[in-house]
Structures are given as C-alpha cells and as structure tokens.
C-alpha cells in the first residue's frame, strides 16, 4: 500500500503536529487490508520521528519549510509478488524566498560607501526619484529581444477578366474561329490571348466506323 502526505510553507514548530494529522487523515481513507494498514502506520511513525529529529536542528536554513513523507508498505513488511518493495522517504526543503535588495537599500549602501548617513525616509525619496529617471532605461532593458515574425508582403494580384460568349449554329470545324471573333468583339477582351483558341482548332467528328455485320456497298 503506497502512501504520501505533503505539507508546504509551514513554520518548523508546526510541522510535527501538521504531519501527524495528515497521516491520520490519509489512513482514515483505508480499511480493506488490516495488515497493510498496520505496516503503513509503522512507516508513518518512523517518518514522523525523522521530522521530530530534523525540525529543531535548522538543517535547511531558517524560515518555513516544505515536507513530504511517503512510502510503500506490504503486510508484515515482506516482499509480495507484483507489488513494490517497502520503502520510506522523508523530504524536507526550505520554503524561503531569496531576498532581493530594494532600490532604497542600494541608496543606503551607496551613501554609506561615501561616508554619508541617510534615513530610511530620505532613502525612499531618493529611490523614488531615481526610479522615475531610470524607468525609461529599465523599460528598454526588459523589452523582449525576440524578433516579431516578419511577414512577406503579398504581391498585388490583378483580377483576371471573366468573358462569356455565345456561338450558335457554327460549323464544328470553324467553332474556334467563331469563338475567337466573339471574344475579340467583347469589351473586356483587351488582354485575352485569342490565339490560343485558333492554335488548336476543333475539327469535325470523323464518320463512324463501318458496321462489320453489314455488307459493304
């Protein structure tokens, strides 16, 4: 039976009680395998003992901490076919956020370097004025340097004229010539190549082949 409890951003003095409650809440969801629950309870108690040992010793720095307790318990802590072997893991990490010196702090530091003394209020006033002066330069520094995708301009495409002509009662051999003449007479035919119509003239359909079952005359 696998188990896991996670606690985030807690004061070290609160971790032991919070971890014990989280373990009780986790166990309350299981009641199907008494032997596995007993083994899990023993693992949780061992993990809590590690937490009790670590918290007072400040081994991950001051401030709040993140704690994760996890494990896998088989009945009697004996390996079972098809199940993971027993293990217990305790993970403790600092939840502190690194301090970033403010502009006012830098003003105090710079003044001290030159043997000057400034109050906190004076430092804030100087920092505010410096920010107003430096803001345009800072804005340039934090502007994304990734170039925006450059789109190729689309070439202008002139619309092709649509021409419709009607030729009726023409000899099939002269259809191409008649169509070419009609196209040339159309008012929008200034750029139409009518030579393409006459370069491949339509010929009359050939006569049907003779019927092999009919005697030739």
In short:
The protein has 217 residues and is of the alpha+beta class. It has helices at 12-27, 34-54, 103-113, 120-142, 175-185, 195-198; strands at residues 2-10, 65-72, 87-94. It has six helices and three strands; from the N terminus they run βααββαααα.
Task: Please describe what this structure looks like.
With about 220 residues, the chain is α+β, with helices and mostly antiparallel strands. It folds into three domains: about 1-95; about 105-140; about 165-205, no CATH class. Helix content is about 40%, strand content about 10%. It contains six helices and three strands, in the order E-H-H-E-E-H-H-H-H. The chain has helices spanning about 10-25, 35-55, 105-115, 120-140, 175-185, 195-200; strands at about 1-10, 65-70, 85-95. A three-stranded antiparallel beta sheet has the order 1-2-3, covered by helices on one side. Helix 1 (about 10-25) runs antiparallel to helix 2 (about 35-55) and helix 3 (about 105-115) packs across helix 4 (about 120-140). The longest helix is centred in the middle third of the chain and has 23 residues, at about 120-140. It is flat, with a radius of gyration of 45 Å. It starts with a strand and ends in a 19-residue tail after the last helix. The model has no long low-confidence stretch (mean pLDDT about 75).
